[in-house]
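Researcher: Next sequence.
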Amino acid sequence: MALAGCSVGAGNKQKEPVQPVQKYTLAEKNRVRRDFSGDVRSHKVVFVPHCALNQNARITDAADFPAIFEPLMEALRENQVGIIQMPCPELRVLGLGRKTVRDGLETPEGQAHLKLLIEDLVYIIKEYQFQGFHVVGILGKNGSPSCGVTRTYLDGKQVDGEGVFIRELRLALAKENLDIELFGIVDHQQDEAVAWVLERI
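Model: Next structure:
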């Protein structure tokens, strides 16, 4: 019996070992429905952009607050809405010292990484819904080249449109028939995002 990795015959090259592919999402068959009604949890969750809880992740000279979006977070706390912090696609793909964003996210490598991040988010949404929780919605960050919902940064200016991450996330949600609403936070108009969430809980 030949050993794995050994060449057989003079004309055969030794094969490189196959690297395992990291599994980012759990298999559907692993889902087990449970009864979560026996304690005090609110059964309400909302997805928020990473920078809403961590302004330190933003590109240089773009942070508007020392740490978090305090009005939004306080409103979510007061109304007992669970907060799910999405990963920062810009940080994960391009690093903290990034200079340009959209071009990097649109590369094949950037798109491949976004796909993995989005697969994780879609799984989490589906799992919460499967277990009977109310997914209130997804908050993006208007003005962002990645997370803008109705306003984004393109060609050196703010324009109407979606960021790259939100665009790909919408496509993934549609593919899975997930009717999840999205709303873009404006840094100094967080009351609009608060009102949007409260209308849906």
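Model: Residues 1-10 have pLDDT under 50 and may be disordered. The helical segments are 50-53, 70-78, 89-94, 102-105, 108-130, 164-175, 190-198.
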